[in-house]
Amino acid sequence: MRIVVALGGNALLRRNEAPDVATQRRNIDRAVSIGVAPIARRHDVIITHGNGPQIGLLALRAGADPLDLLGAESEGMIGYLVGIALANALPGHEIVTLLTQVEVDPNDPAFAAPRKPIGPVYTEEAARLTPWTMIRDGAFWRRGVASPKPRRIREIASIRHLLRAGVLVVCAGGGGIPVIVTPSGGLAGVEAVIDKDLTAALLAEAVDADVLLILTDVPAVWTRWPMAEGTPIHQTTPEALRAYTFAGGSMGPKVDAACRFVERTGRDARIGAIEQAEAVLAGTAGTLIRRAGFAKGNSDALSKQR
């Protein structure tokens, strides 16, 4: 099978962890060794990843540097660490990390409503002292930035060529570097961060993936959050899943991306914990999203692949 694996940024740098290279390297090594590598040994895998915590930390250090530049920096940094971890876990595989530009609409309404959280968490009191637009993220606050929808992955022809050559590609990290086509036909970066999961769904459709596998730091999609107030959703359809309300800065984009992929391709999407990646892919853990009409309770239907 061909599988697009989307690694969550928060899973690579967890809340309240020290934002140093050693911590991120340890988390990435773990995510690759227990989550990605066992799947890549048996399937064709394309990897993308989040960068929400990392780009926010880079913004703190880099001051006035624009978000498209910081996006490129974080995509290169995380992609390099993922590539090293893959090379160590999968000797003999050819691996390429590709800086990826993703076109957005300059008139996307998201530019007027900065609602994507990036960077570290703040208390309400500390949030009031920052110069940014701050939005609530659970019990805390984070910087909010514009998050326009991805329209086109500019390097998609190169990605397809690499896949045909048998290369394991790491691409579109952090949702890709946000660019627009200017009135003169040129390119320009924009002050935004594209949602990683929506780009992952676009990527999965563009490379004709059999499964979109979204791996994060929670075991499944929950009917309500925190987990103690809800129940896990094991099997569902896009129609049923869209009846729930999910947090915009965390599970909401993952659910939206998974539903979009299923609706547009008729193929499966799965959401679950990195630690259970193989079981999530097999349909025995996490949340399986499949088009309406699949047989609930049929174990064969959960494991059968295209």
Q: Would you mind describing this structure in some detail?
A:
The protein is an alpha/beta fold and 306 residues long. The chain has one domain (2-104, 150-303): Acetylglutamate kinase-like (Carbamate kinase, 3-Layer(aba) Sandwich), CATH 3.40.1160.10. It is built from 11 helices and 17 strands. Strands 3-9-2-1-12-16-17-15 form an 8-stranded mixed beta sheet, with helices on both faces. Helix 2 (21-40) crosses helix 4 (67-89), helix 3 crosses helix 4 (67-89) and helix 7 runs parallel beside helix 9 (251-265). The longest helix has 23 residues, at 67-89. The chain is globular. The N and C termini lie close together (7 Å). Mean pLDDT is 89; it is low at 295-306.
Short description:
The protein has helices at 9-12, 21-40, 52-62, 67-89, 124-127, 156-164, 196-206, 238-241, 251-265, 277-282, 299-303, and strands at residues 2-7, 44-49, 95-98, 101-103, 116-122, 134-137, 140-145, 152-153, 168-171, 177-181, 187-189, 211-216, 221-222, 232-233, 235-236, 268-273, 287-289.
The coarse overall form would be: globular
CATH homologous superfamily identity: Acetylglutamate kinase-like
Rg (CA only): 18 Å
The major beta sheet can be summarized as:
8 strands, mixed
Can you tell me the CATH class? Answer: Alpha Beta
Mean pLDDT across residues: 89
CATH architectural category: 3-Layer(aba) Sandwich
Instruction: Find the CATH topology.
Output: Carbamate kinase
Approximate helicity band: 25-40%
Please state roughly what percent of the residues sit in beta strands, choosing from under 5%, 5-15%, 15-25%, 25-35%, 35-45% or over 45%: 15-25%
User: CA-to-CA gap between the ends?
Assistant: 7 Å
Strand order of the largest sheet: 3-9-2-1-12-16-17-15
Low-confidence stretches: 295-306
- Domain unit count: 1
Q: Secondary-structure element order, as H and E?
A: EHHEHHEEEHEEEHEEEHEEEEHHEHEH
Q: Which structural class do you get from the secondary structure elements?
A: alpha/beta
